[in-house]
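Morning. Coffee machine broken again, so started the prediction first thing and wrote up yesterday's gels while waiting. Chain of 348 residues, entered below exactly as on the submission form.
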Amino acid sequence: MYDINNLLRKNIKNLTPYSSARDEYTGEASVFLDANENAFGSPLDTAYNRYPDPMQYKVKIRLSEIKGVPARNIFVGNGSDEAIDILFRSFCNPGVDNVIICPPTYGMYQVSANINDLEARKVLLTEEYQLNLEGIAEAIDERTKLIFICSPNNPTGNSLNRDDIETLLANFNGIIVIDEAYINFSRQKTFIQELTEYANLVVMQTLSKAWGLAGLRVGMAFASEEIIEVMNKVKPPYNVNEASQQLALEALNNVQQVNGWIKETLDERDKLVLTLKELPFVTDIYPSDANFILVKTTDAKGIYNFLVQHGIIIRDRSKVELCEGCLRITIGTPQENKILLSTLQQYK
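Came back before lunch.
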């Protein structure tokens, strides 16, 4: 049975987190002489001489309004990669515990596991790019703490079967992490609405994709209050800078514009798929719920190099397990997609 106390590392359970100046006083004042900041300001038009809110309270309140989740159930990090690393450091003992990943998938799960000296047990997706529940069940042992699921999946683009994910949530005594970086482009519902049903669920999202804020590095994790408390305890005191917080808040007031971009991206994706299917070297295009498509070709490396020569950069995924011969193409603007297609039509 799931119990967070059985999963937490002993040192994390006993950890006293760093107490910053902004943790100890959070109100308004006319003179701040507590944090050894430069009182004269910044050599910029905007002053960044004060430390940011360590808990990103205003950002969480706005996210709470958009996502329908209480602010206390939200973690805001320096990209989703920080959330991944914090989950490893909170729940997994280096050299002892293991996690499960399901390739082909986002490569940072494996990298972060390696950094934290953890065994990442690979259970390949099926030929249809769905979860292998039997294989996952066989890979789980008493030292398995986390299972990472990317849906919509990167690099395949498809959403994973919801019933399969719920089967894992109901039967695994560790934590299930669902990475929903591309959920805004998907027909599937987010798993955020299931947080009240599953105490062992963590849902990750980001402002890097549909929201167009990749350069700000703002990621989110949604989970039970007890998991969020642990993540806040382990994170660095000022993990999201003031500029990112201010700009994220500004962006979060433009939901309608973002929704328009999402619709245009999906329209462009459909057009791109139709035209790519007509090219003789394209053998398959996999269904996508993301802002990219995975395209199987007869000569992935040759096509990739040809496009590079013409100043067009895509991702060669042909060496990734179950993605042999495949290229991953992000959906661009109408003009960018037009350039891509006209260039590919010249490839022999």
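The chain has a mean pLDDT of 97. Going to sketch it on the whiteboard this afternoon.
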